[in-house]
Prior knowledge:
- Helix content is 33%, strand content 11%.
- By secondary structure, it is of the alpha+beta class.
- The longest helix has 9 residues, at 22-30.
- It is globular and about 35 Å long.
- The relative contact order is 0.18.
- The model has no long low-confidence stretch (mean pLDDT 86).
Amino acid sequence: xxxxxxxxxxxxxxxxxxxxxxxxxxxxxxxxxxxxxxxxxxxxxxxxxxxxxxxxxxxxxxxxxxxxxx
Length: 70
């Protein structure tokens, strides 16, 4: 990811945090304006998948940009 951040000059917009305990991660998420949820349609399991993060996003009542297969 670091190469893409540098390539697109996003250093001031992206923070790589590594592992964060769940409670701390939710606190970080609560301060965000929106979320993105991505499923890769090259994986056959994606067609019937709802990731656990979606439920956390819904609970935080923020907009979700879903990039998912039809």
